[in-house]
Structures are given as C-alpha cells and as structure tokens.
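Entry for the shared binder. Reason: the reviewer on the internal report wants the predicted structure included alongside the sequence.
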Amino acid sequence: MSIEDIRALKHAKPFRPFELVTKHGERIYIEQPIRIALSPIGDSVAGYGQDGSFFLMLSDIVSVRRRTVRRKKSRDR
C-alpha cells in the first residue's frame, strides 16, 4: 500500500467513495475527497469520517477498497 494509491483515489475524476482498511480490521469510509488529507512526506493519512476524525500511519493501512454502489434492477413488463 502506498500513499500514491490513496492519492490517486482521492483525486480521481469522477471521485468514487472508498474505504481504508486497517491491520486491526477497522474500515474508514471516505465519502468525499475533502474528508481526507495525505502527509506531504507520505507516511500518514488524516481526515474526518462520519464518526469524527482519524489519524493513521500508512503502515497501519492494509488495503484500500472502492465502494460499489448497487443499483436497483428495473423490471420490464
């Protein structure tokens, strides 16, 4: 996991929400790019989630997962 992986998701056009998954199993949902800040030296991530603020060392993040939006299937009659 690199800071560049997270930076690419933060600056993607169009932005799609994603989760940071920690080595302790915590999942932090990033719904807007303004809610996450990346250290200029690439060693940490900070921001505001729905439940408040968080701060993580990059070494605590094991994966980043894009959130999928499920669409309802329309039924043709």
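Summary line for the report: Residues 17 and 69 are 9 Å apart (CA to CA).
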